[in-house]
């Protein structure tokens, strides 16, 4: 059970190690969508993504409670960097299982934090098998990318800052976040429920990794019909844990195509002059696709990260 006290304690725990990231607005984008958008810029976060929050909250507790002498996880990139960074902060070895197709920039960053990278095939089964082998070999503690209350509570602190900074006087009508495994979305939904219960939470998901929308409808964890998207951070399926939170506290999940994601990403690069990765552009792509639904609203958007491979831009 993740209470507001859990989230507040997580924020107190990670605050010395993270940035209180900026919230930006843009008149051109506001005019285009007919709404007032506030972008929580976790692309400016340590390791370049919101994942630093959850990784730190979990790894700091592993160290505080002497739960093990090393940590491990599987990730395509940003959570890998988060665990490697957090492990370096507390002096623990980190063993990171990454699919061989993960962006080279993210693998390099993990190595740069001093972690060991174990490559695997780009399937969930291969990732989980790789982690299990690490645990058997080293005794490392698993810090799951999203199926972990400590990780979810850490991710929840981004929305906590957004609401405190810009939603106190006039609540947001809607807060949007992308959904992959559901850790950020779960945390965002819980924070919003506790701090701003009148605000709707909506998720954006790529059409090329559309499992969460199916799971949301059926009530059980579903697999995507196919996996093909430029949003490499959103290819993972939900867990039972994240699905339960999302079905209780999220209003809707809307999907967008890769072309729509690329157009939203380019719009942010051109108009806001900041680097964001494709996964980060998914919520804005949702707003651009459904302008009638969001017209006139005050909207918060979590920009999840900026770890893009500059040699493989989709535009």
TrEMBL record:
Keywords: Lyase, Pyridoxal phosphate. One of its GO terms (molecular function) is serine racemase activity. Gene3D superfamilies: 3.40.50.1100. InterPro entries: ACCD_DCysDesulf, TrpB-like_PALP, TrpB-like_PALP_sf. Its cofactor is pyridoxal 5'-phosphate. This is Threonine/serine dehydratase. It comes from the Bacteria. One of its GO terms (biological process) is D-serine biosynthetic process. The keyword Disulfide bond does not apply. Belongs to the ACC deaminase/D-cysteine desulfhydrase family. Belongs to the serine/threonine dehydratase family. CDD domains: Thr-dehyd. Pfam families: PALP (PF00291). Residues 15-305 form the Tryptophan synthase beta chain-like PALP domain. The lineage of its organism: Bacteria, Pseudomonadati, Bacteroidota, Cytophagia, Cytophagales.
